[in-house]
Amino acid sequence: MTFKNIAGELPVGGCKSCVMMDELDLNNMDVCGFLAFCLDEMRCSTGPDMGFPTEMTDVMKDNGFSVQYTCGPNGPLGSSGPPTAYGVFVALKEAVRFLNGSDDMTGMSFAVQGLGEVGASMAGLIADNVKDAKIYVADINSARVDEIVAKYRAKGVDMEAIAPEDVLFAKVDVLSPCAMGGILSEETIPKLNCKIIWGSANNQIKASSVEEECRLSKLLAERNILFQTDWWHNTAGVMFGYEEYKYQKDASLKRTYDDIDRVLPKNTWLNLNKAKELGLTPTECAYKTVMDELYGDD
Hints:
Blueprint: H1 2-7, H2 29-42, H3 55-62, H4 81-100, E1 109-113, H5 117-129, E2 134-138, H6 142-153, E3 158-161, E4 172-177, E5 194-197, H7 210-222, E6 226-227, H8 236-247, H9 253-278, H10 282-295
Parallel strand pairs: 1-2, 1-4, 2-3, 4-5, 5-6
């Protein structure tokens, strides 16, 4: 999360915690209050994440438990899912420009893995902004897939469902992982049929160390697949959270989207070109940049 905050040009450090518990009951004030107490004691801020509903933030604030939860549906900025997808999308345009010499994605094909809040938004951004796109979508929730496909087909978009077990290996220009991480491994990389991997999922490479992540990123490069570590471009949600944490009710949608447009395309373009200049993969280059920022370039 510290790396992600550097990528988003945020003046704060980062951390990640995991809560092992039954599904959160938003009507259980004892549990909600305890979670708020723990967060406040750590002096951290957070937003909804995997396993925790976006409505959690509204419960925390409406009941006076904590102002350090952000991005609830009734907050000044709303949920962080759509802006996360937007940040990934505008960064993707720079990746396409780097690869093809133009950010025009007309007629390109896409496979979106996962149709949660971020993945559905990503599919929608492609559908609404890429002319003549061919879009494959997959999710373990078949009803969700049917809903999204029907919605965009009604608008004349060429979108169709693909089985969850097949989506990684679809023959497309862009694979966009927006679900669970750990999908790019020694076993799956040789089977990929895409030119670019660009999504919102955290920890897309199955690795337990930076060294292993960089090693596997080289396997992607050897297959001529453009990829940079996800935290370098999926940081718009954190930028939203910071905006709300800092300004609370005075948080501004316009200011935050302006920041996303200012930061994420620029930093993606710089990282891809710097990596090429240094003879590194974009993933290695992103790690070098943040390590130099944190510890100096010695």
